[in-house]
Design brief:
Strand 1 (5-10), helix 1 (13-22) and strand 2 (26-30) form a beta-alpha-beta unit. By secondary structure, the chain is α/β, with parallel strands linked by helices. It is elongated and about 110 Å long. It folds into four domains: 5-169 and 222-331, TIM Barrel; 173-183 and 191-215 and 622-671, no CATH class; 337-431, no CATH class; 463-621 and 682-737, TIM Barrel (Alpha-Beta Barrel). The protein has 24 helices and 32 strands. The two termini are 45 Å apart. Strands 20, 21, 22, 23, 24, 25, 26, 31 and 32 form a nine-stranded mixed β-sheet that branches. Strands 1-2-3-4-5-6-7-11 form an eight-stranded parallel beta barrel, surrounded by six helices. It has a five-stranded antiparallel β-sheet with strand order 8-28-29-30-27.
Length: 737
């Protein structure tokens, strides 16, 4: 059985040293930029370079987080120079979210392992296989997956699997959350999540009545703890056990690491039968940090009320005695690697010291050994002096001494011999990890579109088509009657709820009868159960001659590629394309068109070529996609789609719809995106098409929006502030940091 990797977090250099001392096989860290924990202390360039050496001397690994989305200039002007010194120092792997970053690193930094972040929302075999083909050597699975789903990914692809085993849980599928971004401008995709999911909300039904008074923190999961599930985690194929917590203190990181190290070793040595977790260790984990107790997460359940805190999360009181023990054991002294040595002191020959770790060995020669004139050296004295390794990286596990009886060597020479040998061993251990001169800087993908000015000619000659997506038959009928609409997109969550395709076929016929293009939007989440359903439906659904299939995740890209689908495939805004390089990476993977990211402002979008992109101009934006279910958490699940609302402390109402076919919730923004007052800015970025996205709107509301669009974008009329007040411009003006 392959040894399990224990992967621990470190928000600062002292924490890295502590978790390595506590038993971590690898450590993931954030550097000065591009990490998903922008508010952690993180590592300076010098600290990170030193950390890589420290880890390698102790036979451990360092993974660097580059798990945010990169804007155009960051990708083209900063990324290569940022990574180069760490790559040359021997960095073991990078953790990435941005598909363009993945392909950039694959091209620029040979032999650097690429790990697909949980932010990429990999939920099945097709997504894992697609990213593996693109160069990812490891998949960090979505936290929502079950043992069975992980086991299938492993057995079908053989790719390395990394999964979270301890720490905080997000309510939303990682990488699918815009809640913090849209409410306060702090984007989780840029490492700045403000965690509004931890705030109180009132739960209201569709009529506005409060469903519960007790459950105020309905979006706040308990912390994950799987210490008792180590055998199952290992046996389902997880290669790396990941502890969450780069924002946590050293005592937490080292303490949790030491306990997981203990039980991983127990399992690996004695197997499942002898595996048992001591209650005292469970208490230690809880005292080190938990949010209203622990949950074992999604491994054995799809969702449930026992995963949610409901009331204000109570963090456990600090056990100062335990913290002090951890500090003394792991923080106040550096780890020393055990080595074996052989010292030879024979009269008339050079003193010789060989030291090694088992994987590396060096031999150092000293001065010639002299005959003793007075008091000869004895073996005990030599052993005592030679084993004083002090603050070095090493300690002798054993030292074999071969020497003549009547000899003399100055103590200073013995010290120098030891010092030179340990330094040479350190250099030997690091020599094979460096990659000087191996990086290849990719050609720039800069676009001259960023140099364009907003000119009157640009505005008046703007040429785009119009797309509308619908979720109800009433909306569909309304849109079919609208002359200026070019294409209509049918949402799978409402037009293909079951394996009966009659509704989908009928809707398609309505669209084509109206003389418009028809597109089909696949589900937001495409897990194993969903994949199996679409396997059964493939010959029916994908033989409908849609003008485009819109994909929302890597599973669907992989699914269509595996079936050799030859139709037009477009990426929705869930597949982020901040940069031109990322657009090109998707294009090379068969994606014909993409959707403009929701978090870039119009000035940034001028540096992004939008000529093959669709811009969302109207719609209630999905802020969260969750495997958790509000109704299930409140024990009010009726296994049918319905609507509820979350009311925040400012009185805003956020619609939540449960999609029961594939069992997930979507939380929508309280106000719709409406870019009717920004026509000049919109037209200055030259999108290929504009989209209106209808979700919960009535026929009357749908007609009103279609009328607004016609007035502003078709007739080039003026937007009056009094036309409509309850809307948002999203990030079109402000953007995200």
């Amino acid at each position: 059985m392959k040894a399990i990797e224990l992967l621990s977090p470190a928000g600062a250099y002292p924490i890295l040293k502590a978790v390595i001392g506590a038993g971590a096989d690898a450590v993931y860290v954030g550097g000065p930029a591009f990490g998903a924990r922008a508010y952690a202390d993180n590592f300076s360039k010098e600290e990170l370079l030193e950390s890589i050496d420290y880890a390698h001397i102790h036979n451990r690994k360092v993974y660097l987080t580059v798990n945010t989305l990169l804007k155009e200039r960051e990708m083209e002007e900063q990324l290569f120079d940022y990574l180069l010194p760490y790559y040359e120092q021997g960095l073991d792997a990078v953790i990435v979210q941005d598909f363009g970053v993945l392909t950039f690193i694959r091209e620029a930094f040979p032999q650097l392992s690429i790990h697909a972040s949980t932010q990429m929302t990999v939920t099945g075999t097709d997504g894992a296989a697609f990213l593996q083909k693109q160069g990812a050597s490891r998949i960090v699975t979505a936290r929502e997956l079950s043992f069975e789903e992980i086991q299938k990914i492993k057995s079908d692809t053989g790719v390395e699997i990394e999964s979270f085993v301890h720490g905080a849980l997000c309510y939303c599928y990682s990488g699918e959350c815009l809640l913090s971004s849209m409410l306060g401008g702090r984007s989780g995709n840029r490492g700045r999540c403000a965690q509004p999911c931890r705030l109180p909300y009132e739960v209201l039904n569709a009529a506005g009545e409060r469903l519960t008074r007790e459950a105020t923190h309905i979006l706040s999961p308990k912390d994950l703890c799987t210490i008792g599930m180590i055998p199952q985690l290992a046996e389902c194929g997880i290669d790396s056990f990941k502890i969450e917590g780069r924002m946590k203190q050293a005592e937490y990181a080292a303490g949790v690491t030491s306990i997981y190290r203990k039980y991983i070793d127990l399992y690996e040595q004695y197997g499942r039968e002898a595996f048992h977790v001591d209650k005292n260790d469970e208490k230690k984990l809880e005292s080190l940090g938990s949010r209203s107790g622990f949950t074992t997460g999604y491994y054995t359940r799809h969702n449930g009320s026992d995963m949610i805190t409901f009331s204000k999360p109570n963090h456990t009181k600090t056990d100062e005695k335990l913290h002090e023990t951890i500090r003394k054991t792991y923080l106040q002294k550096d780890l020393q690697r055990k080595i074996k040595g052989n010292l030879k002191l024979f009269c008339g020959k050079n003193a010789t010291l060989s030291v090694g770790t088992g994987e590396a060995e060096v031999q150092i020669f000293g001065e010639p050994v002299e005959a003793a004139q007075k008091k000869p050296l004895d073996k005990n004295t030599v052993s005592e002096k030679m084993q004083k390794t002090g603050n070095t990286s090493f300690v002798f596990e054993s030292l074999e001494i071969e020497m003549d009886d009547d000899i003399f060597v100055p103590i200073g020479q013995l010290n120098a011999l030891r010092r030179d040998a340990l330094h040479a061993l350190e250099e030997k251990l690091l020599a094979d990890t460096g990659r000087i001169g191996m990086a290849v800087k990719p050609e720039s993908h800069k676009s001259d579109i960023g140099t364009r000015n907003v000119r009157t000619a640009d505005i008046h000659t703007a040429d785009f088509s119009t797309t509308v997506s619908v979720q109800t038959t009433e909306q569909l009928a309304c849109v079919c009657k609208t002359d200026y609409v070019t294409r209509i997109c049918l949402d799978a969550d409402t037009f293909l709820r079951t394996e009966d395709t009659a509704d989908l076929q009928k809707a398609y016929q309505s669209i084509t009868a109206a003389g418009k293009e028809a597109c089909f939007i696949l589900p937001v989440i495409f897990r194993e159960r969903t994949r199996q359903r679409y396997e059964r439906l493939y010959d029916t659904v994908f033989t409908i001659p849609f003008d485009g299939i819109i994909v929302k995740n890597y599973e669907e890209i992989g699914f269509l590629q595996r079936h050799a689908y030859t139709g037009t495939v477009m990426a929705d805004h869930d597949l982020y394309t901040y940069s031109n390089r990322t657009q090109e990476a998707f294009a090379q993977s068969g994606i014909c068109r993409n959707t403009v990211p929701l978090e870039l402002n119009y000035k940034e979008l001028r540096h992004r070529d939008c000529s093959n992109s669709e811009l969302l101009i109207y719609g209630y934006l999905p802020l969260m996609v969750s495997a958790g279910c509000i109704f299930k958490s409140l024990k009010k699940c009726q296994k049918k789609e319905s609507l509820c609302y979350l009311k925040d402390r400012y009185g805003k109402h956020f619609a939540v719809r449960n999609y029961c076919t594939d069992c997930y919730n979507i939380l929508y923004n309280s106000s719709p995106l409406a870019l009717f007052g920004m026509r000049q800015e919109v037209e200055s970025i030259h999108p290929k098409s504009l989209r209106m996205q209808f979700t919960t709107e009535s026929v009357k509301e749908t007609e009103k929006i279609l009328s607004f669009f016609e007035k502003i974008y078709i007739q080039k009329g003026k937007w009056e502030q009094n036309d409509w007040k309850d809307y948002t411009n999203g990030h079109m003006k402000r953007g995200v940091e």
